[in-house]
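Hello forum,

I keep getting stuck at the same step: I have a sequence, I want structure tokens, and every attempt I make locally crashes halfway through. Rather than fight my setup again tonight, could one of you with a working pipeline run this one for me? It's a single chain of 326 residues.
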Amino acid sequence: MSAYFSSQSPSPDDAPCVTSRLVAHLPFAPRKRQRLYDNVEDVLKMHPCFNFKHFKDRAEAMFRWGSEADASDDGPQDGSSSSPGQKSELARAIFFGPPSATPVSASKGPSPAKPTLSFFAAVAAAFALGTLVDREVANEEARIHAAAQTEGVAKGKNAQKDAASSPSVLLALSQQALALFEKTNPYDLDFLVTMIIHVLYMLHDSKARVAYSLLPDVGKMVNVARTMGLDTDPDEFPGTFNLFDAEARRRLWWDVFYYDLFVSDYMGRSALISDTEHTTRLPMDVDEEVFTPACTSIPLPRSPLSLLEPNVSDFKYFGLKCRYII
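Reply #2:
Ran it on my machine without issues. Output:
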């Protein structure tokens, strides 16, 4: 738990937060992260909800923030431990005065903002899902390998698989971070994104049944979405949300609506959301590759090259899924 606090000896008033030591619990190798991103993106093609390109950019910014915070923590604490380069700069300033201005080429860009615990939980959940997909691929490869090779080679393959990152550990880390965030912060969109990824993780277990624990989880998703006002269309609050956030709120509400109907129907229960209890309209079909928080107009999807090669960057499937449940 100490990884959730900036100080090694936190006071009773210190709230848990994201630290560089906490980020270090996530897969840090860039190539492995990219493979997990690809796995999650493949899953989201069948279960689209949030803008994954924007999510990935924010996740990479979190890792950059973690690296910078870790470097600053390891920096010198007093003048006696200054590096030779710092001593040279100090001597130059004493004899020739401080530099008049920092060269443009030497200036650095703005440091990434400190991430929230809810977004850290979302990234950990996404990596858990991506690692779960990796395990499924590894299991299939091991099965094929065992059928073609000797038993001894197959055991070596399984030993290599067991040494890999555990999706259950990453999921537990996500659930822990989300619980701590909930105790000290109001709900935000990342909180619901994390819960939706948790649902996808539970559904993505290659078993022809739905876990009974999903029913209370989806019920909480519905109540959190209502608490955040997602059941009311953002256009009813002029000037409150930008275009990107308004569409994100619509997407999350309709995804919660979808899982409420799907899981409740499977369990033989009535859905919690009725058609007359919300005014949130369906999200628009956009070009996901260029849709960012800076957009002031909806970027319409590009025309597909052909019927056999549809445009993979549009959001049409999500709208079709929502219309199916109306």
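The longest helix spans residues 117-148. If your local run keeps crashing, start a new thread with the error log.
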